[in-house]
Amino acid sequence: MSAERRSATLESTTTIASMSTAAPTDYSVAFVTTPDSQVATNLARRLVEAKLVACVNIIPGLTSIYAWEGKVNEDPEVLMMLKTRTERIAEVTRFVRENHPYSVAEVIALPIADGNASYLEWIGKTVPGTPGAK
C-alpha cells in the first residue's frame, strides 16, 4: 500500500472516529434567501449577535425561479446557510420574519444527522439552549 493510500485510509478512519455522538436532532441547518448581500449580512450579524445561530454562510449569485401571485418570476438572490440548535429554530424563524424585507421570508430547516463532533460541540457552546429544553 502506497504512503498516499495509507494516509487516505488513516484520514478516513479518523473522520469516522471523530463523528458526533450528538442526537440527530440536536443541531439544524436553516436556509434563508434574501434579495441582496447587504440584507443577508445585516441579518447574519444580528442573528449571531443575538446568539440564535453560531454561524451564517452567505452565498451570493443565486437565481430563484418561483411562482408568486399567479406568475412565474426569476430573480437574483443571496442564500444564507445558518447553523444552530434545533430547539432555537422557532426563534430564528420569528427573528427572520420580523426583520426580513420579504412579506413571506423563506426559512427552511433541516436536522444535521451527523458531522464533525468538535464543530457540532462548538455550535452547542456558541448557541445557548432554551430554558427547559431537553
From TrEMBL:
Species the sequence originates in: Anopheles dirus
Stated name of the protein: Uncharacterized protein
Spans traversing the lipid bilayer: none
Cross-referenced InterPro entries: Ion_tolerance_CutA (IPR004323), N-reg_PII-like_a/b (IPR011322), N-reg_PII/ATP_PRibTrfase_C (IPR015867)
UniProt cross-references to Pfam families, sorted A to Z: CutA1
Origin superkingdom: Eukaryota
PANTHER family: DIVALENT CATION TOLERANCE CUTA-RELATED, FI09726P
GO terms (BP aspect): response to metal ion
Family assignment from sequence similarity: Belongs to the CutA family.
Higher taxonomy: Eukaryota, Metazoa, Ecdysozoa, Arthropoda, Hexapoda
GO MF terms held by the record: copper ion binding
